[in-house]
Amino acid sequence: MQSDTNIISEISGKQRLCRVVEMLTAITSFFTLFGWLGGMVIAWVADVNLAVIAAITIIAEITFILLTILLSKSLEKQKVILKKMLGVYIIKDVLAEKVDIREYLPDGHIKSQFVDKCMILPGYDNLKGSDYISGNYKGIEFTYCDLFLEKEYESKDDDGHKHTEHVTMFQGQVFTIKLNQNMDGYVRIKERKNPRKTKGILNGFLNAMAESVGLKDNSNVVETENAAFNNQFEVKTSNDEMAFYILTPQFMESILRLDECADGYTNIEFSGSHVTIALNNGRDSFEVKKIIKNQKRLNAYRDLFREELDTMLSIIDEILTKKKLFS
To answer: Do residues 91 and 108 both lie within one domain?
Structure first.
């Protein structure tokens, strides 16, 4: 087991390396974009043959392009290594304080087959993820991961040239809870679009588009006695009795608190033998932004990760009160 001193040394060293490579990538990118302009200025000021400067500029541009590509690949590789180090040295130990971990993959994610079938997640063309966790909490199986879903749209300009636009459809956390029985039907709790939610990755048209994916069904829309909840969430179900069993006053308050902590869009589905929670908040969990240069900062990040874990487990705790689903 690594000591805190070794953890700080290894992680801070890797963080500083990432910073240096990132800075070099930015420099070579700048010269790739504007190097030709410098060549023209030199030719004009020094009265040098324009053809000679053009040839030198082209060679320099090619060199900077190759350097930028190599540095970008190196930066991506170093970030993956750093993510694994954070997972092994810090995050896994924090998780183990409250969760019986079966598997933890710093650069893993839930299976694409599950995402394809999940009715509260939007359609996508590209999928990435990190911090995949599977294990047991209070005897209940669960999975968790950060998820990134992206859609590609092709368009043509006035000259007929094709362009591909990449639109982020989902970025946030997805976790599932395994029930002890199959539900008779489903209950879907989806947050309504809210233009004031600037931090949620989906808002306005994109949120409405994502919500419409796969939801052409014969669901009943149910209203609760909580007006604030009704204004913020739409509940669709194939089983009214099950919906009202789940939507107790305490559970609705828990969802409102979870949504406030998530600072994005919260969607929950009870279906089959699973409960799925999707928090579309435009960020990853268990992220380190500052260099861990001393014990104080290492402890601060451990405490931050504990808070994130407690937020996740609090909604599981509330779902576990639905004993009918776990009997």
So the answer is: no
* Structural domain harbouring 52: 1-96
pLDDT top residue among 215 and 265? 265
DSSP state of 324: G
Residue with tokens 């909604």: 315
> What tokens were used for 319?
């779902």
Secondary structure of 72-130 in HEC code, one letter for each residue: HHHHHHHHHHHHHHHHHHHHHHHHHCCCEEEEEECCCCCCHHHHHHCCCCCCCCEEEEE
Tell me: do 206 and 161 sit in the same domain: yes
pLDDT in tens, 223-260: 888 998 999 999 999 988 888 888 888 888 888 877 77
Residue for token digits 């104080």?
296
Q: How far is CA 22 from CA 17, 69, 72, 87, 291, in A?
A: 8, 12, 8, 22, 14
Please count the structural domains in the chain.
2
**How long, in residues, is the chain?**
327
Show the tokens assigned to 266. Answer: 């919260």
Residue 114 backbone phi and psi in degrees, to 5: -70, -45
Together in a domain, 71 and 120:
no
